């Protein structure tokens, strides 16, 4: 049984070619694209929705933070592909909801909903790399993905700026829904990367609330706490910087 599982995992590694890298890159970029692509349209959104469009960024980040506590334990228990399918489905529904919103409360709600799904992309893309490769090779792969991911904050506002010239801000969220649908279809070519031997038997026998407690206990461990806090601060700057720069340049 173990030999068969090892052969399956070896076959999965061999299938990880250019298409695998491109799919993971798209999953990594979905969060940045979701926060940056509509920045040029925020003044128009604030006028149409009669509210502070910046709340859509806040709502997205809140949903993104909460979702990580949920999807991590689920992916360790049920594998990587199932949470990705569900997450991208939520992302599509959230994007459609944003496109159809008529006031600020509606769009903030759907942005939180959108973030609950968008979170699965970058989080599980990293987990898949960790499943398949050794520490050194995984670091190389993640570096490559991060370079590609860095394109999203640059390309997003450029795309959104051109779209707002010829159409309304609603079309930007329709575009995000289409991108989500394309990524969802690409998952059919994405293999399951979590080997059965790496799935802890104890996780399968635990309830979801117990899994959340386990994740919380790991996070507060002294060895992980300080690096985790520093990394999250860097991510806050990474996602917040384009928004701040946009407002400074606009004024």
TrEMBL record:
Which Pfam families does this UniProt record tie to the protein? MFS_1 (PF07690)
Regions annotated as coiled coil: none
Transmembrane regions: 20-41, 53-72, 84-102, 108-129, 141-159, 171-190
Q: Domain named Major facilitator superfamily (MFS) profile: which ranges?
A: 1-251
**Does the record carry Membrane as a key word?**
yes
**Membrane-topology annotation of the record:** Multi-pass membrane protein
GO BP annotations listed: xenobiotic detoxification by transmembrane export across the plasma membrane
Alphabetically list the UniProt keywords. Cell membrane, Membrane, Transmembrane, Transmembrane helix, Transport
Gene Ontology terms for molecular function: sodium:proton antiporter activity
The record ties this protein, via InterPro entries, to:
MFS, MFS_dom, MFS_trans_sf
Q: What is this protein called?
A: Multidrug resistance transporter, Bcr/CflA family
The protein's organism comes out as Citrobacter freundii
């Amino acid at each position: 049984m173990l030999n068969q599982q090892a052969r399956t995992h070896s076959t999965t590694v061999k299938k990880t070619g250019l298409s695998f890298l491109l799919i993971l890159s798209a999953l990594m970029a979905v969060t940045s694209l979701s926060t940056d692509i509509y920045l040029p349209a925020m003044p128009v959104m604030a006028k149409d929705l009669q509210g502070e469009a910046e709340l859509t960024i806040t709502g997205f980040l809140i949903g993104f933070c909460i979702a990580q506590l949920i999807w991590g334990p689920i992916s360790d228990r049920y594998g990587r592909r199932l949470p990705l399918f569900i997450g991208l489905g939520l992302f599509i529904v959230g994007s459609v909801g944003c496109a159809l919103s008529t006031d600020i409360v509606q769009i903030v709600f759907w942005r939180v909903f959108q973030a609950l799904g968008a979170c699965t992309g970058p989080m599980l893309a990293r987990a898949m790399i960790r499943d398949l490769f050794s520490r050194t090779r995984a670091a190389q792969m993640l570096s490559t993905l991060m370079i590609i991911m860095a394109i999203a904050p640059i390309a997003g506002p450029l795309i959104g700026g051109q779209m707002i010239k010829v159409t309304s801000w609603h079309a930007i969220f329709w575009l995000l829904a289409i991108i989500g649908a394309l990524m969802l279809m690409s998952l059919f070519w994405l293999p399951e990367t979590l080997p059965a031997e790496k799935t802890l038997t104890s996780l399968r026998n635990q309830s979801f609330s117990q899994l959340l407690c386990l994740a919380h206990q790991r996070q507060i461990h002294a060895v992980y706490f300080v690096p985790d806090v520093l990394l999250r601060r860097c991510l806050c700057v990474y996602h917040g910087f384009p928004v701040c720069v946009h407002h400074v340049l606009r004024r």
